[in-house]
Amino acid sequence: MPELKPCPFCGGEAIISTSSHDSSHYCVGFVFGIECTECGIQLPGRFKVEFSLRDDGEINILNDERQTAAGLWNRRAKNETD
């Protein structure tokens, strides 16, 4: 998971916040967003991460939007990269 920049409005800590989850006999999934722990501002939209367990016991990631969400949260008006 990439590091999340502080909140662009108040400088507070950003966290991933799970809003729902789902599971079946095949996979487990979470719907999440990113929000500030201080002012409560949230990144618009919801994102998913889904995975399954392979026959050898390793985790198989089926869908992972954490990088996309972090990139959107970390983007600033001047498109800073640091």
What's the count of strands?
4
Q: Could you list the spans in which at least 5 consecutive residues all have pLDDT below 50?
A: none
Question: How much is the average pLDDT?
Answer: 93
Oligomer: single chain
**Beta fraction:** 35-45%
Shape field: elongated
Structural summary, described in words:
- 11% of the residues lie in helices and 39% in strands.
- The protein is mainly β and 82 residues long.
- The protein has a four-stranded antiparallel β-sheet.
- The relative contact order is 0.24.
- The model has no long low-confidence stretch (mean pLDDT 93).
Care to give the gist of this entry?
With 82 residues, the protein is mainly β.
How do the helices and strands line up, and which of them pair or pack?
Blueprint: E1 14-23, E2 28-36, E3 47-53, E4 59-64, H1 66-74
Antiparallel strand pairs: 1-2, 2-3, 3-4
What would the keywords be for this entry?
single chain; 11% helix; mainly beta; 82 residues; 39% strand
